[in-house]
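Box 3.1 A note on notation
Throughout this textbook, protein chains are presented in two layers. The first layer is the amino acid sequence; the second is a token string describing backbone geometry. Keep the layers aligned when reading.
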Amino acid sequence: MWLAQLMWAQVSERLFKRLRRATMAAVLTALGSITATAHCQSLPQSSSLLVIAHSPELTEVAQEWQSYRAAQGWRVERIELRADDFPEPLRARIRLHLDGVEQGCSKAVLLLGDADAVPCFLVEQTEPSIAEGSPPQYATDLPYGCADGIDFPDAAVGRVPARTPLEARTVLQKVKRYEMAPSGDWRRRIELVAGEGHFGGFDTLLETLSQGLLTEGVPASMSLRVSYCKPGSPWCPAPSKLRQTVDAQLAAPSLLFNYMGHGSDRSLDQMRVGARKIPILRVEDLPPGPSLELPSRLPIAILVCCSAGHFDRTDAMPCLAESMLFAPTGPVGVIAGSRPTHPYANAILERDALTALCSGRVKELGKLDLYIDTSLSKPSQGDIIDAIATPIALAQGWKTSLPQLRQMHAGLYNLLGDPCTRLALPPDRSTVTQLQIAGGMIRGRVPGMTSGEVTIDVERARQLVPGLIPVDGERDKQLEEKCLANWERANAPLLLQIKCAVVDGLFEAPFETLASPRWAAIRVSAVGESESGGEVEGLGWAAAPILAP
């Protein structure tokens, strides 16, 4: 297993010290208001509950949010904050509603307002290796979702840290458009950006982890575009086009924008090229917002780094995650850390978040965040990352135990966005059945589809990139041209594409194989109509030997 290679992390004491102080992740690598009153009267009373706690200034928007979610069948309760509301009394008021919900029913909390208006909790940071030079406490909204106020959450919690009605309406309209967005391949795309580790000899091991995420963390049913901002990597963008590349990845229609690396309150890391330091993404690089001129096919964002989600800044300046949320073309929701984070817990968060999202086991944004919180709060037995981290923790004398670090990061990472947002997941891969390759043909069935079109994409293994040009590090005189060529090759895994018709649910097309094969991933996407005229989607995938053109 790829993570087992990290056992070689028994390197020098100097590198251990640098690792302990590190704050990066285990890196690589419609519009308009819905009038719900009449519609809600015809809906059954839902046992799923959303509690909206909001500032008085945002009452009107909170009512619009309440109507929108009620129209979808949620039972919605609003709590308008009082001037003397502090975190614990507010939590008690919220839990009075939540604790009456039957077990097994969905529970969610939307905090509508910034931390000055809707208070967050401040929790002591206990690990010196990440607390050094940072505030002694971190901001968290997790206790609002915990029945005991401390440990295990049972309700999804999200915050829209709006300071004005326009900011709040921008997010509400983004959510509406996102949930009404058309089907398409964008739902199975992942945009991945990573910063360099700067751990010296340890970077080789981090690149091994990166390869593991590419080959195992993201299944073949998903398409993936990667930028690893380290000169010499096949996925390194041309330095002069770094900002343009990352901007395009953030704005591209996709299921997920994922960043792993170093970060700070208002920016992600920088790419080092000799004496130059090129920013990967800063607040000032984002399109201005808020605005009600919004696209529909937006990603969610997970920023696995330090401090990008510092939503309680005292200078009234929005953090990077807030700015992304309010940007018209930014993500519909952001999961990010409010203070410096730890590589060990970040590795777990990255793995589990990708697993939950790509498997389709969570259907709502808040449930994705809740799944991450739960996986961090309740460590599984025999976790390979724990097995790797235990000797490192002992050698370095970490003051905080591994379970405590996990629990801390459940609180450190917060969701900025509406927890009820329905994720734009692709169809389950089982929706294409009887997929087989035999006799020089590929065949399959899309249940329920009477007519339509199938697109069959054949991709090489992601880690096997042919035709790469060797790069002599960051001082290579042709670095710009080589990075441009290599990045394009690394992010173009498509070997061939076949299109054919679906007739009465069945399809077939010629498909050549090799006697001594090189295996490739095959992804089948289908869009068409049912007998009643409604739209039907299908998605399937397999691995097979292919004859590359």
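The CA atoms of residues 466 and 489 lie 8 Å apart. The chain has 14 helices and 23 strands.
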